[in-house]
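Appendix B, Record 12. Input sequence as logged:
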Amino acid sequence: MSAQSKHIGIWGNTEKPFFWKLLPDIAAWAAERELKIFLTTRIVAKAENKIGFNYNIIESADDFKQLDFLMSLGGDGTLLALARAVGDRETPILGIHLGELGFLAEVTTEDMFEKLDRVADDDYEILERMVLECTVQNGNDPQIFYALNDITIDRGSSHRLINCKLTANGHHVARYKADGLIISTPTGSTAYSLSAGGPIVMPTLDAMVITPICPHTLSLRPIVMSDDKIIEITFPDNQAGGLALAVDGQVQESLVLDAKVTIRKASYKTRMVIFSDSNYFDVLSRKMGWGRRGES
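Logged structural output:
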């Protein structure tokens, strides 16, 4: 598809005033490049006469298939929600960060139009990021969730430590007595898992990081497992309720005591737009202070 006929979708955090400030500028850029803009139904519903340009509407998730790429305008949470919405439809995502920290977004508002021009001219690359598939058997029909960052199991509203038994491909790995457990992708290794003491894993790798939250022993430390493992988590010896599961920190599910959680690599990957001059460790340094020893 040529640059003149590209279809671009916009997914954004409509609660941020800056999103509405940028939207007309993006529309003007798209018109100059003769590109067609597609907006989500949420954006249209929240617009309140703020849209003064021609656009098409993304009516359903399957409409993502007709787009050349999707812009995520917001923070990391906005991009994570978009990744789950796109699912296995393979539409590339370009993250444009509007907040203060933001780690997943490739583009800032300062260099946004330069990067958008490069995407319109096909001067970009695709980084495929691993996704987790999580099946929850919770006293009813199994539910399936997908996570780009992580699956977290914790004690919910309870004040008790939880007991988790973890197996990989049917083999016993460990029993955890802790505040919870984080199973993350390499993408999610720099999120909650890192805060809980987990390692940084390059996003180009396929692996799962298992990080306990405040374990009640010094012998339990984070583990990095290969992507061919099927992880099962059960909760023996728990005497009270309060178990909770979170998907990318955004989707919550309460767990019964005899629940079983199965996690494996999903059959698809999230496709992220990156550029030839992208440097993962530069992003770590700029946004997280990686490798610095007091220098500014």
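The chain has a mean pLDDT of 92.
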